What we know:
Elements: H1 6-14, H2 18-40, H3 43-59, H4 70-88, H5 116-132, H6 136-147, H7 152-159, H8 163-184, H9 200-207, H10 213-223, H11 227-244, H12 253-268
Amino acid sequence: xxxxxxxxxxxxxxxxxxxxxxxxxxxxxxxxxxxxxxxxxxxxxxxxxxxxxxxxxxxxxxxxxxxxxxxxxxxxxxxxxxxxxxxxxxxxxxxxxxxxxxxxxxxxxxxxxxxxxxxxxxxxxxxxxxxxxxxxxxxxxxxxxxxxxxxxxxxxxxxxxxxxxxxxxxxxxxxxxxxxxxxxxxxxxxxxxxxxxxxxxxxxxxxxxxxxxxxxxxxxxxxxxxxxxxxxxxxxxxxxxxxxxxxxxxxxxxxxxxxxxxxxxxxxx
Length: 269
């Protein structure tokens, strides 16, 4: 790996340095591709998001002020391209299955699958369908926080909202995702009692290990006395854990090759 900074690499790539271009891709292609895939739902759209995001970044690198990580800026650029794609697709049927479609079959509990590799792939598909069923504003914060692992401050900067608003939106996204997953995994019939309303958002943050020590102690004391909140918290923990283990980190080789070729051609023009 080069010791050059991201900005130095991008400027070098603009002058025809193929090694610099390869290193920029190695450093950032996964995060941008993953974000595009989770937001848009198809490899073709994710490829377009990756290509357009990096091309925009190369072309506008001098506008990068350096007051945030380059990765945060790339998420902002990718987010813009995702929204543009969505506007282009207005009136076009979605490519993912709705949650009540026959093809979106229910999945057995995780410990019941004999073939773990196949089950992991199936769980990834179910999770992706559930994420795509979220409203766009909820989907993006959940992807940034629970899939990509950005801090609340970083995610809020990408989305352009206050941290408090982001936490509230993320809480609603986690609850919705939990409900979608329960339906897809055949757990809906059991029903899930809601958590105590005054603690609902804090429990969401507690489940994701995002609270300070004092809040943690207070909530643990409450959970020891409240089965309803314990059940809700355990379900949220499973949801967050699934998001953090979602498969699909690698950019497919054909996609990477096509994006690299397009970028190389555009940068040399």
